[in-house]
């Protein structure tokens, strides 16, 4: 047996023994690479006589061609085997339900949705958003809003007080968003048209009350603001928010330290359908918010002259109007982090409320 026959048998055995594409590539490089065994033989062709080229040269080229074909065939076999192994390992059970995308599974909390709805409504009326700190001083939370010393709201049974600081001052978790009204009046000159959504805190907890809850307030200050303007703003808001063509409202005299005159506002409704209250129809009445003309003392606290400027303000509980609009029976569920509740009452992330597209579409 010649040396070429021996090399051929050895190389073909190596090709057949290769177990994966990396192994067959190693065989190819060892035989046909720049310094491979067959390549070294091909380099000797230049030193051969014409007679040797016709015999030995032809045998070397035949070995190269046969080995190239064997390597290509083995590569194809290994590639097909690898694909078959992947198909076995990566099977897909087509009977399984398709997983929904994060955008489909996720839900927006009703409070976030309500804030977006209210923002869309009042932005269309020319209002802007104002914010303030959750931890307030006694001055901004009470004194600047015309709460007299000894008022029940200042007592421990209603307000969360912090321990006294080095100066003996006790800060509080704000009991309403009204401090932002004073801070806004201090920071900008009229005309002012703002709404103030945010968290508030009071020591109360039951099916319709929570120690932490959400409010939204509105404030308008200019030289001609009046009760008629306020009534129009509130009527337009209620029609847009509850998505009805008309609402019937009544204003009852009330008392709030920071407004004078003060009113509680009722809306005519139908309560005959259980937890879902229908507005714009029926013969029942439901109190929805409080409002009034800004008290002169509050204007003075904000650095404005009440002889030159006047304004009106209103406030309502976001959690409560969410319960009314969407038929949620218990306020505590808003804060229980129950995924089942969120899946039922939550909103899709891409359902952005707009006046032209529908607030709760």
From TrEMBL:
EC number: 6.1.1.20
GO molecular function terms attached to this record: phenylalanine-tRNA ligase activity
Ranges of residues in domain Aminoacyl-transfer RNA synthetases class-II family profile: 112-349
A Pfam family reported for this protein in Swiss-Prot or TrEMBL: tRNA-synt_2d
InterPro entries hit by this protein: aa-tRNA-synth_II, aa-tRNA-synth_II/BPL/LPL, Phe-tRNA-synth_IIc_asu, Phe-tRNA_ligase_II_N, Phe_tRNA_ligase_alpha1_bac, Phenylalanyl-tRNA_Synthase, tRNA-bd_arm
Transmembrane segment boundaries: none
Subcellular compartments: Cytoplasm
Enzyme category, top tier: ligase
Residues where Mg(2+) binds: 260
Top-level taxonomic group: Bacteria
Coarse class of the protein's main subcellular location: cytoplasm
Cofactor binding note of this UniProt entry: Binds 2 magnesium ions per tetramer.
Cofactor requirement: Mg(2+)
Catalyses which reaction(s): tRNA(Phe) + L-phenylalanine + ATP = L-phenylalanyl-tRNA(Phe) + AMP + diphosphate + H(+)
Swiss-Prot/TrEMBL keywords: Aminoacyl-tRNA synthetase, ATP-binding, Cytoplasm, Ligase, Magnesium, Metal-binding, Nucleotide-binding, Protein biosynthesis
Family assignment from sequence similarity: Belongs to the class-II aminoacyl-tRNA synthetase family. Phe-tRNA synthetase alpha subunit type 1 subfamily.
SUBUNIT field: Tetramer of two alpha and two beta subunits.
PANTHER family: PHENYLALANINE--TRNA LIGASE, MITOCHONDRIAL (PTHR11538:SF41), PHENYLALANYL-TRNA SYNTHETASE (PTHR11538)
Protein name, UniProt field: Phenylalanine--tRNA ligase alpha subunit
Gene designation per UniProt: pheS
